[in-house]
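Worked Example 4.2. Consider the chain below.
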Amino acid sequence: MKKKEAKKMNSDQSIREIHKLKKDLFNMRFKKINGQIQSPAEFNKIKKNIARLYNNVGNKK
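Applying the procedure from the previous section yields the following structure tokens:
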């Protein structure tokens, strides 16, 4: 997700996307433990996207 995409979302959309990304991160942790993870760099991408969305939600309140 790019900054422009995050800015276009309203607060409700951002919150829904945050919940989705958190679930993905949770599932990736289990895959990491089992050795099934494809790309370890995805952790950082997901975390950055969550931070962008939190920033987006905070700015629109």
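The chain has one domain: 3-60. The longest helix spans residues 11-34. Compare this with Example 4.1 before moving on.
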